[in-house]
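Re: the 186-residue chain
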Amino acid sequence: MDSKTSEILEKLEETSEEFWNISHQTGNFINMLIKLMNAKNVLELGTSNGYSGLWIADALKQTKGHLTTIEFWEKRQCLARKYFQDCGLSDFATFKIGQAYDIIKTEITDMFDLVFIDANKQEYIKFFKVIHPHLKKGGVILADNITSHAQKVKPFVDTISNHPEYQVQILDLPDGLLMAYKIGEA
């Protein structure tokens, strides 16, 4: 990671509560996982101010991949775009504004190596249903806030944990990170 990106990530960590950003540890884990998987195509639900997306795009710069990131709030995504520009990572991302479920259902045709969910917690189950067909065999779904918002994400956790096409583990990272490996066909 270059010094400019590190500097901006540090700056954004100061506003993490305001923008509900993932932890530094979670960002670092996602960055390493993308590199380990040599992921090329990543989908993020919940751009916010771009903190997690910068971790993702930084890894995709190394793997020569691309991020599609969806945010409901235009004001937040404008901030994210600026930070991506400042870090020289804009070429590694496509930004979409609107309801994630609707965008996935109507605009997304790609297959993804990795999907990161960090949006409306009560909609995780709804997101999973439209993401599943777009995740490659051997792909990974990561979902944040699994322990911090356990009741809100319970339907999603129960469904994916009992799905025959996924192997699931909840990681002991701040707020809880669910990792689901797709072992079956789309």
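The longest strand covers residues 135-144.
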